[in-house]
Amino acid sequence: MQDNAALDPENRALYAEILRAPAGYDLDAALATTYTLDFETALVVPATLAFHAAENRQETLDTPLALLEGLERLSARIAIFCEAGRIKAVPKGANRLTALLEETVTEVTAPRDGAFHPKLWLLRFTPIGGHGRPRLRLALLSRNLTTDASWDLSLSLDGAATTALREENAPLVQLVRALPGLASGRPTPDRVKDMVIFLADELARAEWDKPEHVRSIRFAVNGLTDDVWRPRIGRTLGIISPFVTDKALVTLTRGIDPAKACLLSRAEELAILQPETLARFDQVAVLDEMAETEDGDEGEEDGPGPVPARGLHAKAFITERYSSTEITIGSGNATAPALISGTNVEVFATLSGYTKDIGTVQDQMSPDQLGRFLREFAPFDHPDTLVEKAAEQRLDAVRRDLATSDPVLRCEEEDEGRIRLFLSSRTEVAVPDGIRLRLWPIVAGIEHGISLRSLYEREHLLARLALKDVTRWIGVNLVDDESGLELTFTLGTELVDLPNARTAEILRALIENRTAFLRYIRLLLADVSDATKALFSAGRDGSLSGAFGTGQDAPILEDMVRALSGDGRQLRDIERLVTRLTDPDTGRSDVIPEEFLHLWQTFQAVISEKTK
After folding, report:
1. Given CA atoms 89, 91, 95, 101 in this order, what sign does their dihedral have?
2. How would you classify residue 61: left for phi > 0, otherwise alpha for psi between -120 and 50, otherwise beta?
3. DSSP β-ladder status, 324-330 and 460-466
4. Is the pTM here over 0.90, yes or no?
5. Higher pLDDT, 566 or 603
6. How are beta strands 78-83 and 105-108 bridged, if at all?
7. Burial label, 305 (beta-carbon count in 10 A; 0-12, 13-18, 19+)
8. How far apart are CA 25 and CA 10, in angstroms?
9. Packing angle, helices 64-74 and 569-581, rounded to 10
């Protein structure tokens, strides 16, 4: 924090920077919570962690082998929890690699009938070579795990676990420990449960490196118990919140002189507030030239300007108490579910320091800082949205019913390797009159779906698919006939009777010939930085041709011999790949050259000798 500008919009941090391991460290475990999620971002995260040079999201998505290897290396070390029924749907058909996220993503519901809304990353890094202490990183965000390009705030703290429990971390520990028990339908996988328990124990003893001028950091979580946290009242108050309600704003400003209160929100939210509520703030502002999105909605990628042009998604509460300034950031809006009833699960961090160092509320909102991107709110008559809101509520009620119906997707093998998918649910869902429901396998696309009026124990044939296109994810489209409003999302199911060869089929679809196999072997063997440069250079033109050479001119043997003297991880990766791509009955493969299989048998013998 510099020059009394804790919220300086020029202090930018990319998502990749938050996830990047410190120099000399590797990622050991990562836990994330989010309200909404899109699969493309979830696919990019492991690749970003595995390949440090992968800064461009679209470039990564255009390089399938990078996505594949990122998932193969790190998906078992990552756990993502998101609100059930809030994963984005792709009607045209999703990337089949989403199947490899099935154990990574767990859908949850809030225990007090609100929204599961926290945005948090907890990462553990271990030193390369095993010398030194593991490091922890905690990131609290205002954004979801989507492509939303709105103006956000984040807090990233580095630290390490100590020998003693740290009381200030208790609210975060409570949240992390609660996550597996919030699972909706399909239970949290055992691997994820074990990771959560381990990270919670580390978090309980974590000591954080404080930002400059910050004297203390306090954490708070709402939505798990009847206790509701809200910002402490001081002599001034600044609120930054894209969503607001009269009840919350009246409560937060109680006892504060309007001349010392300011509010930054979205124009359409401010337009529906009561005039008496707006009168509680001397300054009411909106971002200039903003293009709003819904909370967590996907937006277009924007240029490198200091403030994205997609509107406001940041949340902050700033107050001055005695000689200190307190800045609270986190997931919660200035709304009743977040701060009054406390039905939403939210996470907050309050940073406190001397006002002379951190600045006042006016310092943060001044024309030299954030104020240069603001304009005064001009009241206007908001269009009557009662019909639309009623339709949204009807559709959301069906969404919640489906999300908590415990759906099951059963596989049944047909001839020629195709799979019949049968859909049912353990809790009955009846679609109300006036609403249409369509469901489809997320990889296949909406044209392969079916329309239903109800869902329960009786199975419905959803689709016939190739094994490589089978996942536990289904797309859902709801249409309200009266208003024409649509709601589209992805729903997770419990996938049963899945043939063991599914992952191998996905690999064969990506590694479709011997040349591609040899390139992937080079990726597994190469130095990460060199491999990344070659991989993403090739990815820019959509081709991997020439990125790693061919079987004739690539020194694969030399690289494999070098890998023998290492920790064995690269050769274990190759063994995993060869096993998946080889017919267990014949020992042959359509994509692995015979010469490589003979070479690999020699290495297997050496590896066996080394491990005796």
Report:
1. positive
2. alpha
3. unpaired
4. no
5. 603
6. parallel
7. exposed
8. 28
9. 110
